[in-house]
Design brief:
The longest helix has 18 residues. It is built from twelve helices and 13 strands. The chain is an alpha+beta fold and 319 residues long. It is globular. It is an enzyme of class 6 (ligase). Its main location: cytoplasm. One of its GO terms (molecular function) is metal ion binding.
Length: 319
Amino acid sequence: MTKLTAQEAKAFGKVGVLMGGLSAERDVSIMSGTGVLAALQSQGVDAHAFDPGQRSLAELAAEKFDRVFIALHGRYGEDGSIQGALELLGIPYTGSGVMASSVGMDKITTKILWLRENLPTPEYAVLGADSDLDAEGARLGLPLIMKPPHEGSTIGITKVSDKAGLKAAYDAAAALDDCVLAEEFVEGREFTVAVLGTGKTARALPIVEIVAPQGNYDYNNKYFTDDTKYFCPPQLDQAMQDEMQRLAVAAYRAVGCEGWGRVDVLLREKDQKPFLLEVNTSPGMTSHSLVPMAARATGVSYEELCVEILRTARLKLKK
């Protein structure tokens, strides 16, 4: 690992690491932010924790940060809310801007954009209180996936195997969101592709395959157990790896992502066709997280990755 010189570290100025927040992913965000904070401090960066879930925007302005690393996940941190506040305060920040963050957090809008660009994503339906669940279940086929379209970390997701389970799955997702996303279930392998950069410079890191117990990559198996297995690089021929990385970068660009992100991909077993699932504009940076894993496969340490991401911090609306 190459450590920053004192001059390089000083050039970042006073850095805030935003963590915690108000979303259902608060605990994971604290784990991510704690890791990022320690990594930046180990490199000599003048980095400080800031929790917008417990402190006000006035306090954020008073800290006079020269830039911030966003380690927030979910609502108010990954959906354009904090990004808009930082633009108004004039504080450069990591990751995507207001629009891309908002779009990326909305799985329905993301799908609409991807389909417009002829990018493959599972069939879906948007459900409300007056929707005919049986009819939509018949159209999409069972099993299907039911989820709140504005949550992350698999929160509120249910795999529905029969008609009897549709209503309970809908209610579970509707309790977290103002509409519900029903999605075709793609039987196959699960992968994720980290992307760094912006626009034409965006590049994919090595692919990570995720093999969870009983295929259930839920909140617990993501963050709190060692039962999930990861393979980087995965057992895929080079042509498929190239195609998956191409799709991930195209998906990232279609949403307008900047700096860094992660695109989740399913590979359908019956015909080996890849499908785009979602884009994460502020991915996890915990000990179990996938972007650091992909970076390590290229010889980039966790600390070096944090510094590389911090270098990209900027205001997006003020050119």
